[in-house]
């Protein structure tokens, strides 16, 4: 890697005509005047300019095609300073400002220049992603790749020698570093996840402390019911073969339904009746937060070993929303809420959200990510998508 050097900077500005790029040199004033002899802006000229501008913006500039071909070429040639690579780099620099400079470059002109002038056969050029896909599998997302790295389940790299700069950088430098970082991070999160988060267990703990005998008996009954749901969860996953998507969905649906059906028994008690009453329409009753706190306190540990004994996924599959709610309000009352319609129309970004909500979500997410995979071909991304389908 020490011998790797950047290509020399160009000393001359590239000329568009050298690459078959046409230039629209008509001025803005001439467009707006619409051929008027007075040289004044007219309504007809304005309409013509808007139509021409819209048409021009809709044309493909071939910037993406040039960039992709450049990536393939420098990977294949194993250098970034060659006549062909420099020509594509010049074309890229020109097409970046195509709308401002009035450059017109269609697909036919680009393909003709690449084939006839540069003599490049695109189908013969491999992309560095092809080598990476050999290791991770085709069209694998970044999240799925990270999940495979944590398990160390990547495929054999390839029989092709590692004599290309990008291959060596990725497989010998970047990939080992990512794998070591993920392993270290998982160890840190595992240690933190085995510690009881008092802000999540405080709801059930306080009710045990301040409730009367009837309430405490009700909480003991809740604990026993949660044990039964967890037994069904383990039974569902304990199969001699990996479960397919439909079987996984059935396990989650059945357990979630049984968890949702858990209700207090002694409804004659005034305090217990208040647990299931909603203060405002559609508000989740206190009982849901009490159940979430109880299931967290009882199953918060992340034991090592077989995944069927792994409790992290169970907890968040049953009570993720309620736990996020409890955690968010543990930071104070200033928590932002959004409806489903608002969430779908707005892309929430961390800098637009209140810091308390962000911190709460991050804490929950960290705990949720400290989980093992249900089967070799299942990533955390697959699990998240499955939960979205089930909980809708």
Strand arrangement across the biggest beta sheet: 1-2
Determine the structural class based on helices, strands and strand pairing: mainly alpha
Tally of helical segments: 18
Distance linking N and C termini = 51 Å
How many domains make up the coordinates? 3
Radius of gyration: 30 Å
Q: State which percent range the strand residues make up.
A: under 5%
Total E-strand runs: 2
Average pLDDT, all residues: 78
Unreliable residue runs: 304-309, 351-378
Helix proportion: 55-70%
Shape: elongated
Largest β sheet strand count, sense and barrel closure: 2 strands, antiparallel
Order of helices and strands: EHHHHHEHHHHHHHHHHHHH
Structure at a glance:
The chain has 18 helices and 2 strands. It has helices at 28-33, 43-58, 63-77, 83-96, 98-101, 107-118, 128-136, 142-151, 165-193, 198-210, 213-237, 245-260, 270-275, 286-299, 312-329, 340-345, 355-369, 380-391; strands at residues 22-23, 103-104.
Written description of the protein model:
The chain contains 18 helices and two strands. By secondary structure, the protein is mainly α. It folds into three domains: 16-124, no CATH class; 137-191, no CATH class; 195-391, no CATH class. The chain has a two-stranded antiparallel ribbon. Helix 10 packs across helix 14 and helix 11 (213-237) packs across helix 14. The protein is elongated.
